[in-house]
Amino acid sequence: MKTMKDTRGFTAAEIITVVAIISILALIVIPKFWSRTEEARIARAQEEMARISDAESFAYAETGFYFFPGNLQFEAPTVTVMTTWSFQDWLSSGKPVNPAINSGYTETTINNWKGPYITYQRTEVLNDTTYAPLDPWKNPYIFYGPLTQTSESNDTTQGSKIRIWSMGPNLKFDSTTTLPFGPAEGDDILYVR
């Protein structure tokens, strides 16, 4: 007497069909998630820039100075010399588009520091005492203290608005002709307060 074997399982055709369906769905869904991820990073950068601006405003209200953004996270310092934004130093250093620690900033004695004014999730160490806050793409935020561009002569004057820039998702400045005033071009992000 012959007995039939139990033949449970999937055929190769069934497995290939299922893999093909899953692949097609993945090709449709993954780009949608990717764009949502970038939208979330942009929103996060805008929120962080607003927080930096608030922290700069609080520090200015208490000390009379704007600071290199990385310094805003420090406790009341034992050494009261801090890196502060100086319009005149920025102007005399040739109005650099991407101000480094030595262009637009000066070392200033601060007597009434009550920090920290902000806590950062991501920072980059620039030297022993200076940290730069990083945007969601791991590039430093660029801070410009109060300055204004006069409409008649394109001249730069000390103003009341501070500006914080992020390079955005493509990791380069597209707004090189409009820095530091704006508007932001390409995927650059500008926060003005």
Could you characterize the architecture of this molecule?
The protein has one domain (14-192): Glycoprotein, Type 4 Pilin (2-Layer Sandwich), CATH 3.30.700. It is an alpha+beta fold. The chain is elongated. The longest helix has 52 residues, at 12-63. It has helices at 12-63, 87-92, and strands at residues 66-67, 81-85, 105-109, 123-127, 130-133, 142-144, 148-149, 156-157, 163-166, 189-192. The relative contact order is 0.14. The strands form four sheets. The chain has a three-stranded antiparallel sheet with strand order 1-2-3.
Topology (SSEs and partners):
Elements lengths: L11 H52 L2 E2 L13 E5 L1 H6 L12 E5 L13 E5 L2 E4 L8 E3 L3 E2 L6 E2 L5 E4 L22 E4 L1
Antiparallel strand pairs: 1-2, 2-3, 4-5, 6-9, 7-8, 9-10
Helix content: 25-40%
Radius of gyration: 26 Å
Q: Hey, roughly how much beta strand do the residues contain? A: 15-25%
Total strand count, please?
10
* Uncertain stretches of 5 or more adjacent residues: none
Determine the CATH topology. Glycoprotein, Type 4 Pilin
Oligomer: single chain
Distance between the first and last residues' Cα: 90 Å
How would you name the CATH homologous superfamily? Glycoprotein, Type 4 Pilin
Shape estimate: elongated
Largest β sheet strand count, sense and barrel closure: 3 strands, antiparallel
Secondary-structure element order, N to C: HEEHEEEEEEEE
Average pLDDT value? 79
What is the CATH class?
Alpha Beta
Entry keywords:
three-stranded antiparallel beta sheet; Glycoprotein, Type 4 Pilin; 193 residues; 2 helices
